[in-house]
User: Fold these one by one.
Assistant:
Number 1:
Amino acid sequence: MDTITLGDVTVTRVREYYGPVDLTPEAFIPQSPAEAWETHRSWLVPDFLDAETNIVNSAIQTWVLRSEGKTILVDTGVGNHKERPYAPVWSRLNTGFLGSLARAGVRPEDVDIVVNTHLHVDHVGWNTCLDGRTWVPTFPNATYLMAKADFDYWNPANEIETLLGRGNQNVFEDSVAPVHAAGLTHLWEDSHRIDGNLSLDLAPGHTPGSSVLRLESGSDRALFVGDLVHSPLQIHEPDANSCFCEDPAEARATRRKLLGSAADTNALVFPAHLGGHGAAEVVREGEAFAIKGWAPFAPYTEQA
């Protein structure tokens, strides 16, 4: 298992997908200086950037946390058999994710809590699975924690015009609404305490209800920041948003705030989509930040 221990909490990385996402650095993080990719190319390649194609490599993965006797999933990836007409890279997948979860010692019925850091297509997919022709909760005994701000924002009944637009089509209907209808969601506002080690706070910008999961156990600290950091380049270039941020100014401010908090408290930063070692320690470097060290997860590029 790809597992580390932080205080009284174990963190296991379970992969759904790793590889190219059909976006160049300029398309994925359009505000990032081209010279920054060249400056850091020696360590961005191969884990985060393909040298031959100049396409960004990204991971779709779930963090499994075991804390105070409970099993907690942070984000649930893309899912299988989902119809995604405007996000073709994620459409109609058929992966062995549940098998990978089982090899990490987690059966669907074992999961106590699911945390969706936000409600984008690649963070909620395994919330549900097909039972015949019906989408049902994959984790029937879990409480699904969703920020109310994101639930309302992505609910098509509210007819909100979003930046992602059709890129999130069908997601609410097949991956959010079924667990809500089953009475399994808890729509939290502002903050939410999970247990003595873990808490959720709003971290808006990427989406209105984007959240950060804080781990504080013993002397260890970690921040699971979802998509506020898509590429480790954004640690060095914190004002550079991805092309998917709904409120660019707020995303920049939140990213700086969280990276500053991580640097000041020596917290590991766990973005949702990093390949490589998965998480990083950061330090302040002038007006920006730098990577001090990596978590001890094995890079996907080194795994068979």
Number 2:
Amino acid sequence: MGSRGRVTLQTIAREVGLSKYAVSRSLAGKSGVSEETRALIRATAERLGYTRPVGQSQTNDIAVVFHDLDAVNSELYMQIQNGVQREAHRLGMALRIRWTHSADQLEELGRSCAGLLLVGPHDREAIMAATATGVPIVRFGWVDPLEQADQVTGTDHEAGQAVLQYLIELGHRSIAYVNGTPGFRGRRERFYGAREIAERHEDVSLHVLRFDEQIGFGEVFRDLKAKGIHPTAFFCAHDGLALTVVSELLGQGYRIPDDVSVVGFGDFSPATQISPPLTTVKMEGQEGGAVGLRLLLERIENPRLPGMPARRVMIASRIVVRRSAGPCKVVAAADHARPGSETDQHSALVT
């Protein structure tokens, strides 16, 4: 093993088959490690001749920081938190969980932790404050094009493609994409993916329904029908929107899925609590949390050198088929619009 000074925490970790953080917490006398494991680690450290370097930091905690003003994704954030905590428990390491959007608090955490997991739409000021500390960071959420930041994300664009292909295979040709309130990047990416598939089929038309709190789904849907457009399927950008759509359609006398099909996005808890249960896209939040933590630990143990590229890790979603979507049984004869050029495609949009 060489001289005593060359035995590191990583040396001991490899020897006992645990993470460096479990080793560090054991030798520091911190909680989160069983007494049996602690005894094994201490015995191994003594056998290898390990001595803690003078001035070595006792802090090896990871901070998981959630944006506290993003209520739309709260259930997804809880899934991510569960995944991070489960992986941390498996590795025998400690976490600090924080909910904030404060740049000052992010900077303070960066200076007192070994690494940061940032979840949600933290603004540029907060990101820059955290990055300036020099601590490794992995982000859950959107980054700028080619931004050199490690990121774990879902497959929004690909999911939009998959849902449109699924509905087309069921026979639907007039499909509405329920975007709801504009401005969410994930919803735009899902639409872009769906649009790509629709443009490959000359007989498929894709219509976007955008609305806010003042103008709800019911009003924009009536406007769409007034133009002679009668979708047989609705792809909703979020399960919350899908609940609104199902309620409104049932209230108007539609039968689901006999008359119209509805597909959501997220596979959140309400998806199985409505009737019919919602066909939707499952976002693998727990797996994303675990993968994000593993990526961060790798960056801490093997720092990214100048010029090395950042990593993008995508966690593939999947369609969960339930009873809210089925084969198209009604041809919307009133909808004769043939999608063509980009201008023709957008002439059908409701804004």
Number 3:
Amino acid sequence: MSLKVADRARVPHFEVMNVLQRVADMRAAGRDVISLCAGEPSAGAPSAVSAKAAEIHRLALPLTYTSALGVRDLREAIAGHYRRWYGLEITDDDVAVTTGSSGAFMLAFLAAFNPGDRVALARPGYPAYRNILTAVGCEVVEIDCGPGERYQPNPALLDAAAEAHGKLSGLVLASPANPTGTMVSRTELAALTDWCRTNSVRLVSDEIYHGITYTDPQAPDAKGVCAWELDQTGVVISSFSKYWGMTGWRLGWALMPRDLAPAMDALAGNVALCPPTPAQLAAVEAFRPESYAEADAAVAEFAGIRQVLLDNLGRLEWGTAAPADGAFYLYADLGDQLAGFADSAEYCRALLEDEGVALVPGSDFDAVNGRRSVRLSFAAGKDAVAEAVERIVRFQERRR
């Protein structure tokens, strides 16, 4: 008897996870490996969050189900965060707490789009957007955004995409973006939200790297511009994983447009019942002043590591690199260093096996042009990145 596998499940693996598994296997075998593949801040959660989690477990609180959209205290704290950072007056009813930002994307895509709807996104971009949209039956329209566009879409590119593929129903925008770290300005975001409004396109704004930016902290929009400052018909998605360093706590959120809120609430209760209860109870402490201060200190360290990488681009002798305005990634063409390798995936495999440095091939983020590129995450810390640079230079010199 032959049983089928659903067509919607035939999506590529997220290559980062495959690289992480190889790193774990090598470490288990005694190899010294520097992992610069995952976007995972090394500092971990703010101390107040960790202390609250310890108290929750010490008191043996009954960790039962919560509301499908999260506990009221946390939703109110998130609403307060938007007042504090962006001057937005929103309420807890606008907030859905989710199992990571991944859960928020799933709820948003299911609520906003029907099978067959066309949803645009930038290429290179985070592969899970494409894969989740494909799994829920949407037609993904990738927009080739290179260095000339600073790796971000614009209205002219969206017009061209709609003319080539047909009417669009959605646009997924990330600022700062993964893997490039590039951002859109307030003016650019206003142009995109205007385009979406004019063309009846639902914007899904990925803002999980807000706060991890490398402009003057006192400058306007230093943390990033929230799409809801300009238009509240889109979905805003964020997370505790990046700015607060809480990747394994699996906690994110969405700001829900009023027309989508009932559907997202119903879907949340059916798909996940609720987000992780202990993580929710502890995450309220992320909004204490001292927690913000710890997160900002981590961002200052990222800024220093970023500068080390930019200063060493000449030694690495790679090609064009994205400016990394935010987040903690360096996305670069390998240039002449690709000589002798079939593609960047082969380069990354050889680097990992020979020198114990794990990068991610660009093909994970761009199936068309990414075979020449790599993504390096500098979230692992200054010492790890500095040592990795030395190993990469040594690897390339030996391979010449």
